[in-house]
Each structure stands twice: as C-alpha cells, then as structure tokens.
Amino acid sequence: MPDQNPITAAYSALIHDVKNSLGLMTSELDGIAAQLEPNQTDALQRINRLSLESARMNNVLMNLLGLQRQDAGKLVINVQEALVVDVFEDVVARYQRMAAQLNVTLSMACSEDLAWFFDPMQVESILNNVVTNAIRYTNSTIHLTAFIEQVAGHDMLCIQVTDDGRGYPQALIEGLTGPSTINMATGSTGLGLYLSEKVANMHEKNGICGKIQLSNEEGAHFRLWLP
Amino acid sequence: MDLSHYRCLVVDDFDNVRKSIKGMLVRLGIENVTEASNGQEALRALRYQSFDVVLCDYNLGPGRDGQQLLELARAEKIISQRTVYVMITAETTRAMVMGALEFEPDDYMAKPFALDTLDKRLQRWATRKNAIEPALAAIENEDFESALAELDKLIEESPRYRNWAQRQKVDILLDQKALDDAKTVLLEAREQREQAWIDFLLARIEFLKGNFHPVIEQLQGLVLRYPNFVKAYDLLSMTYERLDELEQARHASEEGAHISPRSFRRQMRIGELSEQLDDPGGAAKAFRKAVKLAENSPHETPALYDRLLLNLESAAERSAEVADEADFLRDASRVLDKMNKRFKDDPEAVLRSQIHQLRLAAKAARASMTEKLMDAAKRRIGDVSQELLLEVMQAYYDVGQANAANRWADELIKKFPNDKALQSKIIEMQSEPIPEQDKRKASELNRSAVQAYKDGNFELAEDKYQAALQISPHNPSLILNYVQALLQLVLSGNNQQERISAALALLQRLQYLSDLHSQYERYQQLQSKALQIKEKLGA
Fold first, then answer.
1. B23 CA to chain A: closest CA distance, Å?
2. Which of B296, B383, B417, B422 is 20 to 30 A away from residue B447, measured at CA?
C-alpha cells in the first residue's frame, strides 16, 4: 500500500508484526490443547481462555487497521452475492470449540440458500467482534440467526446475535458515536462497534444504508441490518 | 468428503506460519503439502506439479506479492481454474488486491484462522470444485453451447456460484465477440445490484464498440464509487490514448500505479506514454521502476535496461539545472553497472553497454568542462571585453548546450543590469541558439534568397529560405524574410491557402519575441499584414 505518512506506515507494519506473533501463539496453543488428555479439563479451559483473549487482541488489531483505513478514506467494501450460511459457518467454526470449553453453546440457524449482496469478509469480521465479546459476557448461549424483513417498504437482511448474559452497558446502546466513546475504565473501547457501524453504513442500496442496532432483551441483542 | 488425496501448496515468507498451516492440513488428513517461502519457489512448485489448493499469503516480503504470483501463474497458465487459489490476508479488506478482474483469487481467508475454519473451507472448496466441473470441462473443450447451458444452470440453481458463473458467461460471450449478448447478461445482473465488475465490463464493451467518449464518462463514475478498482484506470488510460489525449492517458495509468504500485506492465505503459509525450525524465522514472519490478523475472531484459539508459541520457541532455544533469548521469552509470552484472554473458548486452559508456563518458566530461568554463568566466567577468563574454555564450551553443548558454546569459544580465545594448545582443543570440558554423551556412543561404527576391524570383527565394530554416529554425530575421516572400507569392495568386497558413505558422514561432529585439517592429508589421491577407482570402 502506498502509505504516504511514515508514522502511519510504521503503525501498520507494527500491527502486522504483532498480528503475526499472535497468530503463531494461537496455533501453538491449539497444538498444546490437541496434545492434552480429555480429562485435563482445567488446563484445557485455561488454554481456551488464552485463545479467546488472543482472538480479542487480534480483533482489536484488525479494528486499528480498519480505523486507519477509515481515517485515510480508504475503507472500502466489496459487495458481492454471498450466502449468509457460509459466513455463519466460518464464525461458528472459528469459535465453537473454544466456546464449548468455556461452557458456552455457540449455535446458528440460517436457511441454506439465503443469499444476499454484502461484503462477506467485513461482515464476518463484524461477527467475530461480536461473538468474542459475547463469549466473555454471556452466561451459557450465543445464537446466530438471519432473516429477511421489510423495513419501510424495503427488504433488509437482518443478522442477529443474541446471548443470555447481562446485556450491553447502557452507554454503549445510547451512543454509537465514534472512537471518542472509548472508555478506559470499563475496558470496553467501542472501537469495534464504531467500525461495524461504518461498514454497515457503507452497504447501500437505492439510498438505504445498513445499520447496527443494540438492545437488551433476555440478554444482549446485536442486529446488523443490510439493504 | 475425503480430502486425503488433496495436494496443497502453502506460500508464506514466515517459516513458522508455513509450518503451522502445514500442521493444520496434516491434522486434517492432507499429507501432500508443499511449502514455498517466496514467489520464485512457488512458481517452481506450480510448474513442477499441479495442486488442488494453493494457500498463499498476500504479503510475501520483498519481491513478488501473492496477487502478482496469482496473475503470473494464471496468465502463463501454470495453474488451471481447477486449482483453488486462496489469498490469506492480515486484514478484513480486499482493497489491496481488488480490481485484477481476470485474476481474482477464488477465496480469501483472514489470518490467523483456526483448524475448524480451515476444515470448513476445504470442504466448501471441494464442493465448489464438483459443482463447477461440468462448466469448466465444457469451457476447456471449447464447447461453448454446453458451457453456457451449464453456467445458466448454476446461475439459476446455485446462488453460491452465481457470481462466478455470471462472470464466466460474460467472458465466453466477449471471447465470441457477442458484445450485445454479454451486455444483456451484465444489465440483468446489474438489476439485482450495482457492482464494480459489472460496470467495468459494461465500459469495456463500449470500448470494444469504439464508443470512446461514453467509456470515459462511465469509468470516471466508476472510479469515484470504487476508487481502488485498478483495472478501471487501465481501461481509462487506453481509452484516452485512442482519443489521442496522451497526457490524460498517462495520468490515468499513474493513478492506477499509485493504488497498485507493483505492476510491471503499468510502469512500462507509463514509460511508453512518457516517451510519446517527449518527456524522457518521466519515462526514465517509470522505466526505472519497471526495472526494479522486473528483477529476476523474464521481463528483465537488456532491451529494458537499454531503454532506461536512453531516456536517462536524453533527460540529462535536457536538464535545465547542472545538478539535475549530474543526477541523471550518476543514475545512468549505476544502471549501467547493474546491466553489466546481470548480462555479463550476453554479447549483445555487453556491446550495447559499451555504447552507453561512450556516450556517458562524453557527457560527463563535457558537463565538467561546462562548469569549469562557467566558473572561470564568472571570475573574470569584469576583466575582459564584452565581445569575449558573448563568445562564451556562443561557445555553449557551438557544443549544443543551450541551457548553459542561457545560464551564462542570466549571469551577464545580473552583472550589467542597465546595459541595454548588451542585453539586446544577448537576446539576438538567444533567438538563434545554434553553432557558429551553422549560423554562417544559414546566413549564406539567406543572402542568396534575398538576391532571388530582389530579382523577383520569389519561388527560388522560397526554396532558399526553406533550406536556411532547416539549419536555423528560429532566426527571427530569416523567418521574417521568408514570411515576406510567402506573402508576395500569395499576392501573385499561387497556392494561396497553403502559403498563408505556412506564413502564419512561421510567425507563431516568434510569439516569444521581446520588444528589445531588433526585429520586433518588423514582426508586428508582417503579422498584421498576414492576418489582413488571410481575412481577405477567407471572404
């Protein structure tokens, strides 16, 4: 990438470097976990805790790269016709084993032939963010669903992630406003949500833009609407 | 599905990453895994055997990246459509690789990925391979009717492969020159959703039809919406070239190169357009990048080095600043060194390099003498006659160094700011920046032309003036003499339109003439006379 600003370029290089290390750590952890006996549940759990935190760190780094791109006006999406179930399967495959070890059931329900126009990589990344956080905060379940619903006369794809935890902090629900909402005290940066919102907005059809919706029902309810 | 017979190639510059991916594949039951740590190794492996899956990191360190590898491998048909090429990226964006339409990876994976994710994907690729096989087989057998039927089936029944099938269909129709059919397919697809590749191909169809102006409008809209769609800039550049707007063509290619700086072809194109635009500096810059990109590839040829050197030499020649000239020459000698190292066993290249060495040596020696004279003259500027100072200026013209002559003229004017007589002499010289010898030849021809004119033989005068202008194309009094003869010939009624146009074109050459020049008034008179005649002829 032609990054003009040397500081920006240095940040990118740094982030990629850390990401590489993190990737190696994760695969080493996987290797260790594979060698453990099934009855070593305590060790397995602790390894999975580490894997989860690595995944969260990786998401944060991805978000930083995304933020940089957005700042430089270079965040672009690549809309194509894709199957929602493919994205779901990737997300579930990525986290299911880890979630199970932490006594969380990660499940999905989606019609096999639900096709829609969207950027599958970006949407997967949004879901990765949501799911890693949900694994941390839910009690026992995380469920992915998708359906098409009419909103103001237009068909929209709704992708939904629900859990049975204590829900989102009120501040997060009220203000999907920008990186300025970063909250050091609670440890929730909101950066992932901020970018998710941007990416959702960039999905546009006939003047209708995608959006993110957070609510607390039986647990946290995350909805991504795509036109 | 049992994938134990699968052959996989893993390309990554990090040893650890490669090992870890290989480990995952082995754990998934795939034993036949080849590793490559860079583009070179990958190409060698791809030539040597065929693979079911290539897992390639986008960033391969210095040298080729994953996208270049894919383009090369697909363009040279080292890998078939049956090989699933998967690009592994560190980001969620495909921005950096977007736009290479014919050569898009079959899938992307964001790293790091888990074992289960890879497992899922492998199954999906295997399913895909089976699903598209009938269409691929028909395409391979050039049975396009069956291929189109198979693709239609996919479009209708399998949303997962619809996009791929639509593209294949358009490709086949374009290959068959069925432009309108291809357009129909694209417009149908566009009904569902506007996408960059659709709009791009619609523009390409207009291009193939020769509707260049609409193409430009379409592509400009496209790059506004999808600024990273590199191919659009390439087509834009080609379209401008067809419209003979070379400056715009080069600009479009440069924008493409800005987004995707590692394309050899694009740099070559910028170089070629710069040559056509008579900009050796710009051409040298582009060819230098091309040389860098060509390193260790079949593109790295003596001819490429030769072309770069020629442009560096021309750029040095035309530099207004000595420092620039020195830079170009230093660059040229560095390129020459590299050329010698790379092609020391190629007799053609060795001899060619000797030719460049001769030219560079002469230029370098002359450049250093130029500065020596300039320094010496500056030091003695107050001690010698003005005639001698002007002779210095003429000496620069004699050896073809108009730039040095102008620099010296500036020095003189700075030293004698109020000496109008000197300044007018300088202007006189600047209006005829040629060697003394040529001045004499031109003035000889001028004399015989004037004689012919006096004798009333205007056509003979015309011939002589033409010959004189070949030698001294900018001499104002010569030009004005010739214009006068042309106007006489117009008035006598022969080839009126042609001659009056020629006269006006010649007068254009004197537009720059300062009112300090001795010929200024005459220029103005002849100019208005020529315009009057032109107007009369027009009416």
1. 9
2. B422
The predicted structure's pLDDT at residue B17: 85
Query: How distant is the Cα of B116 from the closest Cα of chain A, in angstroms?
Result: 5
How many CB atoms within 10 Å of residue B391? 14
Selection from A31-40, B83-92, B434-443 with the highest mean pLDDT: B434-443
CA-to-CA distance for A170 and A196, rounded, in angstroms? 18
Contact list, B160 vs chain A (CB under 8 Å): 82-83, 86, 115
- Nearest-CB residue to B112 (from A27, A66, A121): A27
CB-CB under 8 Å, B117 with A93: yes
Fill in the amino acid letter for B401: Q
Q: Is A148 on the interface with B (CB under 8 A)?
A: no
What's the per-residue H, E or C state across B389-457? HHHHHHHHHHCCCHHHHHHHHHHHHHHCCCCHHHHHHHHHHHCCCCCHHHHHHHHHHHHHHHHHHHCCC
**Distance of alpha carbon B205 from alpha carbon B12, whole angstroms:** 38
The interface predicted TM-score (ipTM) is: 0.80
Concatenating the DSSP letter of every residue in B92-130 gives S--GGGTT-GGG--SEEEESS--HHHHHHHHHHHHHHHH
Domain spans in chain A, listed from the N-terminal domain onward = 6-71, 80-226
Strands B84-89 and B32-36: unpaired
Q: If DSSP codes are grouped into helix, strand and coil, which group holds residue B210?
A: coil
**B426 in Cβ contact with B393 (< 8 Å):** yes
Summarize the confidence of residues A13-33 as an average pLDDT.
85
Cα distance between residue A199 and residue A122, in whole Å: 7
CB contact under 8 A, B98 and A205: no
The distance of B270 to chain A (nearest Cα, Å) reads 18
Instruction: Considering only the beta carbons, identify the residue of A20, A93, A125 that sits closest to B116.
Output: A93
Q: Which residue from B90, B108, B196 is facing A16, i.e. has the nearest CB?
A: B90
- Residue B193 CA to residue B190 CA, distance in Å, equals 5
Homologous superfamily of A80-226: Histidine kinase-like ATPase, C-terminal domain (3.30.565.10)
Let me know if A168 is exposed, middle or buried by CB neighbors in 10 A (0-12, 13-18, 19+): buried
B309-338 burial string, b = 16+ CB within 10 Å, else e? Answer: bbbbbbbbbbbeebeebbebbebbbebbee
The answer to whether B225 and B92 are in contact (CB under 8 A) is: no
Which of B68, B451, B15, B70 has its CA nearest to residue B267?
B68
Burial category of B535 from C-beta neighbours within 10 Å (exposed 0-12, middle 13-18, buried 19 and up)? exposed
Residue B442 class from Cβ within 10 Å (0-12 exposed, 13-18 middle, 19+ buried)? buried
Q: Is A204 helix (H, G, I), strand (E, B) or coil?
A: strand
B235 alpha carbon, distance to own chain's centre: 14
pLDDT in tens, B144-173: 999 999 999 999 988 889 888 999 999 999
